[in-house]
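=== Structure Prediction Worksheet ===
Name of assembly: unnamed complex
Input type: mixed (protein and possibly other molecules)
Chain count: three
Listed entries:
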Amino acid sequence: MTDTPPVPDNEDAAPANTATESGEAERPLFAAPPMGEQERMVEAILFASADPVSVADLAARMPHGCDPAEALVHLERRYQGRGVNLVRVGDAWAMRTAPDLGFLMTHERVETRKLSRAAIETLAIIAYHQPVTRAEIEEIRGVAVSRGTIDQLMELDWIRFGRRRMTPGRPVTYLVTQEFLDHFGLESARDLPGLSELRAAGLLESRPGPASDMPGTAGTDEDEEAADAPERGQSELFED
Amino acid sequence: MTDTPPVPDNEDAAPANTATESGEAERPLFAAPPMGEQERMVEAILFASADPVSVADLAARMPHGCDPAEALVHLERRYQGRGVNLVRVGDAWAMRTAPDLGFLMTHERVETRKLSRAAIETLAIIAYHQPVTRAEIEEIRGVAVSRGTIDQLMELDWIRFGRRRMTPGRPVTYLVTQEFLDHFGLESARDLPGLSELRAAGLLESRPGPASDMPGTAGTDEDEEAADAPERGQSELFED
Amino acid sequence: MSEAYGDSSEWDGQERLSVGQRLAEEALIVDVDGFEGPLDLLLTLSRSQKVDLRRISVLQLAEQYLTFVERAKALRIELAADYLVMAAWLAYLKSRLLLPPDPTEEGPSGEELAAHLAFQLERLQAMREAAARLMARDRKGQDFFVRGIPEEVTRTRRYRYDATLLDLMQAYARVRTRDEFRPYAFDRADVYGLDEALARLRAMLGDLPGWAPLSDFLPEGWRGQPARRRSATAATFAASLELAKAGQVELRQPDTFATIELRRKPSSES
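=== Predicted Assembly ===
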């Protein structure tokens, strides 16, 4: 709170070894605080700052006449072997937890695993054909879709429920999420390459298939058309 | 929040200077790390967190057999008079910059919305009289407490709901939070300034008025709470 | 501003107020919005007694308050109801304090009421001082600061599933090429044949009482899914034409695109 120029009134708080070594009597008016005090200041600034702080910035923030470079030397020594270390980041300084204690910070081990073949295929079908019902996914994949696969994709926040289809049984539809688009770097599901492009990219070897469809032409739009769209079946995509 | 006891699977990560000084051969399986090492761990954990960390959380995160409470004692001593201090917040601990160096932190200062007089007084009443009902706050202030005031204090995470009072209408009570203690640099609600004097003067008692028709006390209620909620001393909390 | 009241005894005769005193008094009244209710105003008035709140004269305070309310009325200033309620109560309190106690009357004595009012004022004042001391403390984000670069800790063990856009496209390509490599076979799953439709229609004709829409003749399981419904409709319609040609049914359609209906041809009975 105080905006008054800081007077070195904390000398007693400063460690004795540094506070006493300078000749107090000779200090001019507005003398810099003793080095112990400067070290405290650097310590506090580095602790509270959201970014590493350069020596120049330290000097600008500390009272006139301070020598942050020297204070940093003292501080670095003080934190050697501690749980927290002073580290240099480019031409700036920051406090970081000691690398060997990293295990305390990351209590979780994140293991990256590949999605199962069933999951990635299901995801692809949802992305290309959304909104799509489970029955339709099964129709396209030719095998049943397990509850676990859907759950996993839900948990990853890559798919979500769309509107129910206005057909008997009112089956629920699936859509891909914003999270999905973010993860795969897409602006919209319409940006997914079409089959012809897949083929051009060599992902679809072999002979040209009967399908010339552009994905995303049918119902990549979100919810509104899903409900009243029973007429234009998703399976149309495959029937030409 | 794993409840499984953490296994000390990172012992090899301990720095050489501490790992070698104890007789490795004699250490039983799963022995706790030496106290110096535990102190480093507590230091790192508290440095890494912007929020206070409870002793229980420390214990859960440190290797099996550690004694964070003792490590805290060492650590507190080590940081005495430094630019960063170890402070106690309720049953948790945190590292905070020394208050006398606040003038250096112009960059980090958080501009807080100015609180109304009603909000400040309501906060004080809750802190000193907790657990306290809305009707009791209104009794003390002599005016109705607006919902906005309570909302604002809730939003600041300075107050929270306590248990309902077992009186007619079962009015909800309010308490101050750990964030309140942290914000005002209090170790506990017992350390509120002037608390013991107020208690000695009988000003924290909920003294029933001799006349039920005292104006400005009853009927300021906005909602269901019983205006005549009797009469368990708020100061009970502090009386031990 | 309470200081401006001077000695409260002057309130007894309003004529004797100096100009300055009257201005101060009016300022107080005009400022009544700035007070948070009667208790707040009473606390302010009580300061003019310049004594410890514990030794305050509640009688004097009641008179001050009543004078205040009278002046506000004289100045035609609207006072909120709770100020007037307090005035009425204080007038009652005043009478209880001045008159000798009536032993037959129930309830608390004037002194008890006065003591409680004094307690309320003292408690409110104490809370205000406590609030001020609280706000004057070193505060987080103002005077002391938290770690600027917290290192977040998450405490759940989890697996991160990853897939690239390439994985996704390859998967889709795989699904689609699987279809393409399938030996050619007419996919009959969703095709309702003419023969089936004919057989079904013939079987149903016997029970038909009158006109019925064509859609009633669609078999179960072929009415929902669009492709299947289309196929069944086409087959059933073709079958109905076949039967009409054979003279077994009649067809009608009232209007273009209207529902097609059919019935058993009456003459076919004979």
